[in-house]
UniProtKB/TrEMBL annotation:
GO cellular component terms listed in the entry, alphabetical order: endosome; SNARE complex
The protein's name in its UniProt record: SNARE complex subunit
Organism (species): Polyplosphaeria fusca
PANTHER family noted in UniProt: SYNTAXIN, SYNTAXIN-8-RELATED
Lineage: Eukaryota, Fungi, Dikarya, Ascomycota, Pezizomycotina
Listed Basic and acidic residues bias regions: 139-152
Length: 263
């Protein structure tokens, strides 16, 4: 026996939104977003099944409070499915950035923060003698810092040949700090995802306990109904069996009354 309600589905939709926002952050950091695709797909299927269950429920027992929420749930399911199935360059929809629960506003704001761009500082090459800058050749210590370059002709990288050893060290330290900050923010986002998942688990456990109690009550009343129905059927059978005897007794009483009256 399974029951679904709109608040539970809106909470699930918020969970999917946060997962999609974290997926976009991973793409922006050039990380693989496929690790959460399976979970997002299962959550979308669960949301779709919940909406179908609500539609079947209102068909059997009309409920205006549920019927009024169905269009909004269908719209969010359509937007989230399009956002998940679309390419990484698809613009973020307003549905994805707007939580259903106001208490999650801070989590959504943190998930939408854009990571600071980090420029690549070290380039490698299989032939350092032909690609190293003249200033690097003049300083053996600098040559140890930049022995290789992957694409020296790439204009998108900054020229570090004019930097001193201390400047290079400070520059690399800054890049490492920025990467650490990005990893810290990613860790915080994962922690919020875990906390939200735990809250959803607690809510689902509470719902399951309530459903178990309702199911026990329904089973108990159904057993009482079956017993009462059995008693009625037995009374009906006995009445049919004694019908002829009842008619004879009534006719004898009428005959006795007629004899008494005629005398």
């Amino acid at each position: 026996m399974s029951t679904t309600n709109p608040p539970q589905l809106f909470l699930l939709a918020d969970h999917i939104k946060l997962s999609l926002l974290e997926r976009q952050r991973a793409i922006s950091l050039n990380l693989s977003p496929n690790s959460q695709d399976g979970q997002i797909s299962r959550s979308l299927d669960q949301l779709r099944s919940g909406i179908d269950s609500l539609e079947s429920q209102v068909q059997d027992v009309p409920d205006d409070s549920i019927t009024s929420q169905l269009p909004r749930l269908r719209s969010q399911l359509s937007d989230l499915t399009s956002q998940f199935a679309g390419p990484s360059s698809t613009p973020t929809s307003p549905t994805l950035t707007s939580p259903n629960n106001p208490s999650l506003t801070s989590d959504f704001a943190a998930a939408q923060k854009k990571p600071r761009p980090t420029s690549k500082s070290v380039r490698f090459s299989d032939n350092p003698s032909s690609t190293a800058a003249p200033a690097v050749d003049d300083d053996p210590n600098r040559a140890e810092l930049f022995p290789y370059r992957d694409d020296p002709a790439d204009a998108g990288y900054s020229d570090q040949s004019s930097m001193s050893n201390q400047q290079i060290h400070e520059y690399h330290s800054q890049v490492i700090r920025e990467q650490d900050d990005q990893l810290d923010r990613l860790g915080e986002s994962i922690g919020r995802q875990r906390e939200l998942s735990m809250q959803m688990g607690d809510e689902l456990e509470g719902q399951a306990m309530l459903l178990d109690e309702v199911e026990e009550g329904v089973d108990r009343h159904q057993a009482q109904f079956h017993r009462a129905r059995g008693r009625l059927e037995r009374i009906g059978r006995k009445a049919k069996e004694n019908w002829s005897l009842t008619v004879i007794v009534v006719l004898i009483i009428i005959l006795v009354l007629l004899i008494v009256i005629t005398k």
